[in-house]
Every structure is written in C-alpha cells, then in structure tokens.
C-alpha cells in the first residue's frame, strides 16, 4: 500500500521561533495551540552551534561538525555568537579565538571578524546563517513552507549584535519578524503573561555564558528592568573543573597533551550529565602510560568542584536585583533557562539565593525556543487566545548626542523601554553657523570621548543666523528590535536629514559591562569634568554675547553701567579657562547680574523692531524658545 501525504496547497506558511544559542540552537513551532520543538534531521532536538568547513568547500553543521572540531579545531567554528557584531580589532576577538583571522583590507572589512577556514573567509554572520539554514531545513521538512521567524537574542545585545543577528536570518533566507529577548521568550513559554502582573527573574546558565534578567509584567506587558551576567561562565567551566580531577586520576602530570585532555573533557561532560539523575558513576579512563584506570565520581564531589563556579552567578544576580531596585522577596517567580540549570546543585543554589523554588518544569534547553515560537505565532496573527502580548525590552546603554565641549547630552537613558523615542531642541553656539556636526554616541560616561561612537553626520544648508537663533530639533527613534534612527531638522528653515544608525559591529556584552563599570567608577570624576566643561562653554558664550552687544547696543547703557559690565567681563575672562567650575559659575552670574537691566532694554528694542513685520505672539514665542535652550551643538565649520 502506498501512503500519500496530503496537504492543503493553500495552507498558510507557518511561523517558527528560533533560539540561536552560543552552544546549542533549536527551532520550534506552535501546533494545535501548543509550542513544540522540531527535531533535527539527525533525530536530536538540539543542534550544536558548530559549523565545520572542509577542503572541498562542504559545510557541515551541528553534532557532526562538533565531532570534527576535535580533529580540526581551526576549521570548525564554535560559539560564533560570541563574535557577532564584533570588529576585527576588538580585543575580545583575540581573546576568544584560537582561529585564523583574515586581516581586514578595508574599513568595511574591519567592521566584522573574519575567520579563515580552509583558505576561505567567513564572518560570524555567515556562520550563524549556516546554523539558521539547518534549522530552517528542519522546519521545512515538517511544515513545507516556513512563514516568518522570531529569533531570540540575549537581553544585553546591542544594536550591532542585533543587526548582525537579523542579517544572519536574512542570509539564511528567513523573514525575520522580530528579534526577541531570551528571558522574555522564557517568560512567554511559562505563560506568565496570563498573570497580568508580576516581577520575575530569569536565571540562564548555558554552556559558556550566564545571564540574569529581571522582568516586570505590568498589565500584561513585559518590561526588562535590568540585565546582568557573566559572559565567561557556564557549563564548560564545570567540565573543565571535573576534567582536571579526572586527569589527575589518569596520571596525566603537568603537560598531559591534547589527546588526553580531549578524552578527559568528554568524560567530564558525560559524567556531569549522568550525575543529574544519579548520585555516583564509575568510569574507565585511559592512563598516560597506555593502560586504563577506574574512577568513581560522586555527586557530592561534583558539587564541591562546581560550587565556586555556581557561586559566581550569585554576584551577578544580586547586582541585577539592585539595578532593578528590587529585593529577592519582591519576586513572584524565578525561571530556570539553559542546559546547566539541570544540575541539581544549581537548582538548590538558585532556590536558596532567591528564597523560593524556581520554575523549572519546562525543559530548560527548550524553553527559549518555545517562547519564540509563541511570539512568532502571535505576530503571524494565527493565535486567537493570546490577545495582544506586548513585549517591551530595554536599551542596554544610554543613547545621546555630543554637544559643545565634548559633553554628552543623553536623549534616551539606559534601561528605557523600547520601542521608544525622544526629541530635543538644540541651538547654535556661534554666529552665522551654517551647519551642525551631529555625533551620536552610546554609553554612560559624561564625555563623548569615553562613550562609543555610533554615527556622525552633518546637517548643512542652514542660512547664516545669529547665535541661538537657529533651532535644531533632533529626534531619536528606537524600534522594537532595538535599532536606532536619528533625524535632525532645523525648524526655521525646514532643512532636514535622517540617518538610520547601523552601528559598526563591535560591541560585546563584556564591553557593555566594562562601560557600565567604568561609568560607575568614574562617575564623580566624569560629573566634575562635565560640569567644568559646561561652565566654560557658558562663560565663553556669555562673554562673546556681551562683547557683541557692547558693540551694537552701547547707546542703551546707563551711566556707570558700562564700567560695571566691563569689570564683570574682566573678572569672568580671568577665570574662564581655570579649573574651578564653581568660581566660573559665580562670575557668570556676576556678569549676568551686571547686564540684566540693559538686556531688558535691548530686548524691548529688538521686539519693537521685529513687530514691524510680525505678530507680537510669534515674536514672544521666538524669544522664549531661544531662551529655553541650554545645549549647544558643536559648530560645523565647513561650507554652507
Ligand atoms: P547555550 O544557551 O549557551 O547555547 P545551553 O542552554 O544549550 O547553552 O546549555 C548547554 C550546557 O548545558 C552545556 O554546558 C551542557 O553540558 C549543559 N547540560 C546539558 N544537559 C545537562 C545535564 N543533564 N546536566 C548538566 N548539564 C547539562
Ligand atoms: Mg541559551
């Protein structure tokens, strides 16, 4: 008998969710209202995130590639996710890789790490695309046509890393509906949005990374309150700790050699997995001398070996709680994610740390992919029950503009919920300024030089106007995927420009971490230098404006007024280049005071003149508007 598989040719393409992990990746979909993982063609559910390139140009993905990594590590890329969005000269690139890297020949090439595998150059985006292609094929085997995909990313991924992930999806021929934060995906898999309100921590211990996230569910809307973790902490560290102990038993000595280390690591991982369900295991291991030895490993021994590793997660958890401004007791639930949370010791540690039993009944390997599938299903409009699950993520670092003196004006502070936007008006600092230099930066420090430069552009073609008259409205928009678009418009003339900021790849979680730490460490120092710069800019501005006014409006001075003003000018000029912000500030106020009455008379005359051609109301708003501005963008000294 022949069985025909019948399917509706009009059946809509099915959306899928993908967990693109550092160690393992997997794909899931919703079937009959429930999310399920789609198995790999080799039968397993997890596809190891490993890609091997052989001399004939063949690409091998998954478990088979991982096996080949033992014999040809340089031609097998593992943990490509760690390199996503990183530049060639990124210090992390060197630290992470035992790979051969191609030297960049152009600035464009320098934006991404490039591996050399069997004479071929590939980028992390291409490597990830190979993994995604494999998952797509698996999904197509089951669904025939795949509609769109939701791919998950760590909550701390920055613009560049998110863009790189999207690019990988497109390269794999997938329509990326949305990127979704991994912890939010896990919360969706547990259906927590049905509770409407609550505060949750997501504890994700994978192969090589640890992430912790505090999520707030507010009237059915998820918000990431804080994220933290350690990008060099995970199950691999447990394997190494146990392997050391096994190598001792194998009599390996100080330099055991590549082969023996490999054997010990493989045995350690298998032992660790086995000890999840039993309390002891007997192993037969090769010895250095060529014989074999038997070793018994108990769960207690494993626990003792991994305790220092697991305890390091506690530091990050406490910090994440502090960042979110909450206490462990405020949490309504803790979710376990990542293969390493199967380890019983990890579970009990988490329970003790947070003071409540964590949610762990969904397979921690699958939970993120299942949540992604649910989100894809909602976005594709095929899910009737989950009305509108709104997912809100946050900016990992503040976004701002460089203003006069190199000071950063933050338009969107860190941890702002996205999608979001901000608008701010700036004015010209110098007379007849015909352009603005706009420098968009990301980071917590007060000075642009200490932040990460995202984009520079110039707004030109503004007609010459007196200082303070041109009004530049800058808008920042961050979309649901965390990508930033910047617009700038000079209001009086309507001159306008927009840029999509696709930051050069190259900022990793460790740098985000480092930048946050630096901001904390340098906080006071930064504020002091910011204050000094601002006072100096203000001093220069008021000095220039006063000198100019003395030249044009001297006829409005009353007896003795000029002397008082000139004294104040001299006093301010004397300290304006100094290092005491409070002193500069006091003298600025002195000059302000000395010119106050005269400024009023000048204003009256300016309005009287302006009224000749305009309505009073317009003039008043102009004046008010110009006075309300406090930040000045750097003058652009180019053309007009
Ligand atoms: P990632 O998110 O980094 O891709 P995973 O969540 O897939 O990583 O976790 C992989 C880690 O989980 C590996 O270190 C693996 O050894 C560990 N792991 C998987 N199953 C078990 C188990 N039963 N017991 C202990 N550790 C496990
Ligand atoms: Mg993971």
CATH class of the largest domain: Alpha Beta
Instruction: Give the second-level CATH assignment, the architecture of the largest domain.
Output: 2-Layer Sandwich
Tell me the radius of gyration.
30 Å
Total separate domains: 4
Major sheet summary line: 6 strands, mixed
Percentage of residues in strands? 25-35%
Helix % is 25-40%
Bulk shape: elongated
Mean pLDDT: 83
Q: Tally of extended strands? A: 27
Structural class: alpha+beta
- The CATH homologous superfamily of the largest domain is named ATPase, nucleotide binding domain
Ligand species: adenosine-5'-diphosphate, magnesium ion
- Tally of separate helices: 15
Distance between the termini: 81 Å
* CATH fold field value of the largest domain: Nucleotidyltransferase, domain 5
How would you characterize this protein structure?
- This protein is α+β, with helices and mostly antiparallel strands and 640 residues long.
- It has four domains: 14-234 and 306-394, ATPase, nucleotide binding domain (Nucleotidyltransferase, domain 5), CATH 3.30.420; 235-305, ATPase, substrate binding domain, subdomain 4 (Actin, Chain A, domain 4, Alpha-Beta Complex); 399-521, Substrate Binding Domain Of DNAk, Chain A, domain 1 (Sandwich), CATH 2.60.34; 524-627, Substrate Binding Domain Of Dnak, Chain:A, Domain 2, CATH 1.20.1270.
- It is built from 15 helices and 27 strands.
- The strands form seven sheets. Strands 1, 2, 3, 4, 10 and 11 form a six-stranded mixed beta sheet that branches.
- α6 (182-189) packs across α11 and α12 (509-552) crosses α14 (581-611).
- The longest helix has 44 residues, at 509-552.
- The structure holds adenosine-5'-diphosphate and magnesium ion.
- Residues 21, 206, 338, 368 line the site of magnesium ion.
């Amino acid at each position: 008998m022949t069985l025909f598989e019948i399917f509706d040719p009009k059946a809509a393409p099915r959306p899928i969710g993908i967990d693109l992990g550092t160690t393992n990746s997997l794909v899931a979909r919703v079937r009959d209202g429930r999310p399920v993982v789609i198995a790999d063609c080799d039968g397993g559910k997890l596809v190891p995130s490993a890609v091997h390139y052989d001399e004939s140009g063949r690409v091998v993905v998954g478990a088979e590639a991982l096996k080949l990594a033992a014999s040809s590590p340089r031609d097998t890329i593992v943990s490509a996710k760690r390199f996503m969005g990183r530049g060639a000269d990124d210090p992390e690139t060197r630290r992470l890789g035992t790979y051969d890297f191609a030297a960049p020949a152009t600035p464009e090439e320098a934006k991404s790490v490039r591996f050399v595998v069997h004479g071929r150059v590939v980028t992390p985006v291409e490597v990830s695309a190979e993994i995604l292609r494999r998952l797509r094929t698996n999904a197509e085997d089951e669904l025939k046509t795949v509609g769109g995909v939701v791919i998950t990313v760590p909550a701390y991924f920055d613009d560049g890393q998110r863009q790189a992930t999207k690019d990988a999806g497109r390269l794999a021929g997938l329509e990326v509906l949305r990127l979704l934060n991994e912890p939010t995906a896990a919360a969706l898999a547990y259906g927590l949005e049905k509770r409407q309100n609550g505060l949750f921590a997501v504890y994700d211990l994978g192969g090589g990374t640890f992430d912790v996230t505090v999520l707030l569910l507010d009237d059915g809307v998820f918000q990431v309150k804080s994220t933290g973790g350690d990008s060099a902490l995970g199950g691999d560290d447990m394997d190494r700790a146990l392997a050391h102990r096994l190598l001792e038993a194998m009599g390996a000595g100080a330099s055991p050699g590549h082969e023996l280390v490999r054997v010990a690591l493989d045995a350690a991982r298998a032992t660790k997995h086995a000890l999840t369900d039993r309390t002891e295991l007997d192993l037969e291991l090769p010895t250095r001398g060529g014989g074999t030895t038997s070793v018994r490993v108990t769960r207690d021994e494993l626990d003792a070996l991994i305790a220092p590793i697991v305890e390091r997660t506690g530091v990050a958890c406490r910090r994440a709680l502090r960042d979110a401004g909450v206490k462990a007791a405020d949490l309504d639930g803790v979710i376990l994610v990542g293969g390493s949370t199967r380890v019983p010791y990890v579970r009990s540690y988490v329970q003790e740390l947070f003071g409540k039993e964590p949610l762990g009944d969904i397979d921690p390997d699958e939970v993120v992919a299942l949540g992604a599938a649910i989100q894809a299903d909602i976005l594709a409009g095929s899910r009737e029950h989950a009305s509108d699950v709104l997912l809100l993520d946050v900016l990992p670092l503040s976004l701002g503009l460089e203003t006069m003196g190199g000071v950063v004006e933050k338009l969107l502070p860190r941890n702002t919920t996205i999608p979001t936007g901000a608008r701010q008006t700036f004015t010209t600092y110098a007379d007849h300024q015909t352009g603005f230099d706009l420098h968009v930066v990301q980071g917590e420090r007060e000075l642009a030089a200490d932040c990460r430069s995202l984009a520079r552009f110039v707004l030109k073609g503004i007609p010459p106007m007196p200082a303070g008259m041109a009004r530049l409205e800058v808008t920042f928009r961050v979309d649901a995927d965390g990508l930033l678009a910047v617009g700038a418009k000079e209001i009086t003339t309507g001159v306008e420009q927009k840029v999509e900021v696709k930051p050069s790849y190259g900022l990793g979680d460790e740098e985000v971490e480092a930048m946050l730490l630096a901001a904390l460490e340098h906080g006071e120092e930064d504020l002091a230098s910011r204050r000094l710069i601002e006072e100096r800019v203000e001093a220069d501005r008021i000095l220039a404006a006063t000198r100019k006014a003395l030249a044009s409006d001297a006829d409005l001075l009353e007896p003795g007024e000029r002397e008082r003003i000139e004294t104040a000018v001299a006093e301010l000029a004397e300290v304006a280049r100094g290092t005491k912000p409070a002193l500069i500030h006091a003298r600025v106020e002195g000059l302000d005071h000395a010119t106050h009455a005269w400024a009023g008379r000048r204003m009256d005359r300016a309005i009287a003149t302006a009224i000749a051609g305009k309505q009073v109301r317009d003039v008043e708003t102009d004046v008010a508007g110009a006075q309300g501005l406090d930040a000045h963008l750097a003058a652009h000294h180019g053309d007009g």
